[in-house]
Amino acid sequence: MKNKNWTGDLAGGVVAAIMTLPEAMAYGVLVFSSLDSSLAADGLLAGLVAVTMANLGSSLVKGNPIISSGPFSLVTLMIASQIPVFLDYHFSSDHLVSPPTELVLSLVFWCIFMAGLFQVAFGQFHLGQLVKYVPRPVVSGLFNGTALLIMAGQINPLLGISDTSISWKPLNLFIGLLTWVSVELGTRRLRKVPPAILALLIGLATYHICHRLGYSDRLGPMIGQVPTGIPQPTALIPIIKIMDLPQVWKYLSSTILFSLALAVTASLGTLVGCIAGDEVQRARTNANHELIGQGLGNMLAALFGGIMSSGSPSRTVANYQYGGRSRLSRVSMGIFSLAVILLLARWIELLPKVVLAGLLVSLAASLLQPDTWQQLLGLFANDGLRRQRAAIDFAISLSVTSLLLWKGILPALAAGLLISLIHFAFRMGKEIITQHQQADVRHSFAIRSQEEFQALTKHGNCIHLLSLQGSLFFGTADQLAVRIEQLGHQGAKWILLDLGEVVELDSTGSQIMAQSIRWCRDQGIEIAIAAKSGSILFDLLSALGLLSIIRDDHIFPTLNHALVWAEDQLLDQKLPDDRYQVERPLNKVNVFAGMKNDEIEIIKKYLTWHQLPDASLLIEQSVKEDWMLILVEGRARVELALETEEESHTVSIMCSGRLIGELAFVDHQPRSASVFALGEVKYWKMSYANFLSLQQENAWIAHRLMQGIASEISTKLRISDRMIG
Q1: Distance, first Cα to last Cα, the chain
Q2: In what order do the strands lie in the sheet with 555-556?
Q3: Between the CA of residue 682 and those of 315, 575, 579, 633, 676, what are the distances in Å?
Q4: Which residues pair with 682 in a beta bridge?
Q5: Is the distance from CB of 406 to CB of 399 less than 8 angstroms?
Q6: Sequence ranges of the domains in the chain
Q7: Cβ(27)–Cβ(93) under 8 Å?
Q8: 463-472 and 526-530: which strand pairing?
Q9: 3-state class of 71 per DSSP?
Q10: Could you give the C-alpha distances from 691 to 80, 631, 671, 697, in angstroms and in order?
Q11: Which of 207, 323, 338, 693 could serve as 352's disulfide partner, Cβ 3.0–4.6 Å?
Q12: Taking CA 184 as the corner, what is the angle to CA 178 and CA 186, rounded to the nearest 5 degrees?
């Protein structure tokens, strides 16, 4: 099929590539410099190759069409941290005290290749979903530790310290800080120019101006000569040479575990990128297919000498904003990166190391998680539950960060995964959806007419009620999104989410919920939530922006209120929508069912007619009265005030055709609740004294009326019992 949006795909892919390349080059330098600082130019090329192959390879599989791939900070640091381990474990024999760099790098590329295979397996066997259950505090701890280690690793390049010079250079430090500040200012002030490109140009220009002015002795080195020509798939060939080393087989299990850790970490980044892509496209894509594509891309990158990549949320959104809609945008991103390798290699040689160090410091600063500061502030919150939750999250995050700085990234990741398993077992002990009901069986607390109840019983199966409990985070929110889509495909027209028992909602869970809300809206499905105003969860929903997405008229204090709203909309479609504005004759009122018209006329002599405007008080709680109302037009709200709470609660809605206040009419006790008009109401009123007069005139009709009152009370009790059950 012809792609009508090819210009948008090209533009989106190029913009995403321009945003990615500076970071990719910096991350490539970070990896290769951990082996030898003289390999910075080769590392820069490895970063560009990663962008090329990851996007071209992943575009072969029908996953998320706009996700943009590039080197991932956490994965990059894992590889850089592992290289000294490889040197110590695999190349420590006497005849390999100084092993050729190609052998070490081939082992690195082999691990990346195996990690790509693991990603393909994750997607093929639908194991990628397990990655979603890594809790947010663990991820925050890993990112914070990664940021600190990256910053620490840039001290020497920023100061201009190298193998040939141990004195620090203030001018070099100034250029590095200028590059960093340029990124930060560009992020806040400029929208059209990628901040990393702006900072790269400013740092590059400043460095070479100073160099031209004769201050070269006060500056750090440049990248140096970059290999030219088309990359060849030869990076794994040297692996054959090290197969004879006994250390390789001795530590094979640890090498495989490292590759698995790379795959898990990269997959986590990719799945977050998928969420961002689904969010802007308002469509759910197959994340397992995307993992297969990412795995193929990383395997290709390893063959051609590139570092490992992952999907990026920010660049995915940029791809979409600039026109990317199909996999062609990913292809254009890869081709643009390849063009940079082939055409601009000579110019890339002029890049100063300090400018790349400034970019890395900026990237590291962006990795510092704001969640950690919120957790720290939460330790001083007045609310005990919030304080306890913040303490647990902060302890987990700090433990993972400390372990990463103390023992390295692999022990920290292992500890993080262990915490994830414990956390997962605790949080998933209860299913997120604890109850699923439909409105043909479960009715709201609105006491409706008989024909309305019949219509709900017949057509109410298109209204679905989902009661949630526990934590809404990456994994459980995705489960909820899948269930919502299933209900939509099964014909649901209204979906009501009861969040009353939800104790936690993180930003990723919020994004998935927002995506589901938009999907429902696009499908013509009404979705509403029940969350009590003023609660911690309600404030969290507001802070995360969910309340603004779902709209005020779709937010209710309880599930019953939401169900009344959905029932009203359904009944407006199935019954006359002006049924509450038309006066109901007494022979259509349930309490008079089975009575003859002449009997009703006799009763009518003992009734008085009333009409009141909206919000009028019909009955006041605790007042001792012995009359009842027969509502024949409009609706009324029943409010219950409790001594332990300041505000009253709506406990029922009375619709036309129902009695109000019949209990006090029968037992002469104080009113148990207050009743207010919902809009203009019309009703007949009977006092108990008038009933006694009716009884004296016609005991049989009075008896029939009392039977009708008993039937009304019984109906309401059954409705209440059904709601409680």
Answers
A1: 55
A2: 433-438, 463-472, 494-505, 526-530, 555-556
A3: 61, 20, 13, 5, 12
A4: 611, 633
A5: no
A6: 23-169+220-370, 433-574, 586-724
A7: no
A8: unpaired
A9: strand
A10: 90, 17, 19, 10
A11: 207
A12: 95
The whole-angstrom distance between residue 346's C-alpha and the CA centroid of its chain comes to 43
Max distance between CA atoms of the chain, in angstroms, equals 120
Strands 659-660, 627-640: parallel, antiparallel or unpaired by DSSP? Answer: antiparallel
**Structure-token pair, residue 563:** 């169900």
Q: pLDDT digit string (tens) for 155-200? A: 888 988 876 667 888 999 999 999 999 988 887 776 667 788 888 8
Buried residues in 75-103 as b, exposed as e (16+ CB within 10 A):
bbbbbbbbbeebbeebbeeeebeebeeeb
How is domain 586-724 classified at the CATH fold level? Jelly Rolls (2.60.120)
H or E element at residue 434: strand 433-438
- Helix 101-124 crosses helix 287-303 at what angle (to 10 degrees)? 160
- Residue type at position 712: E
pTM of the model: 0.66
Q: Give the CATH fold of the 433-574 domain.
A: Transcription Regulator spoIIAA (3.30.750)
Confidence of residue 1 (pLDDT cuts 50, 70, 90): very low
User: How many CB atoms neighbour CB 346 within 10 A?
Assistant: 10
Confidence check: pLDDT of 14 > 80: yes
Write the DSSP symbol of residue 557: S
Question: Distance between CA 376 and CA 186 in Å, rounded?
Answer: 29
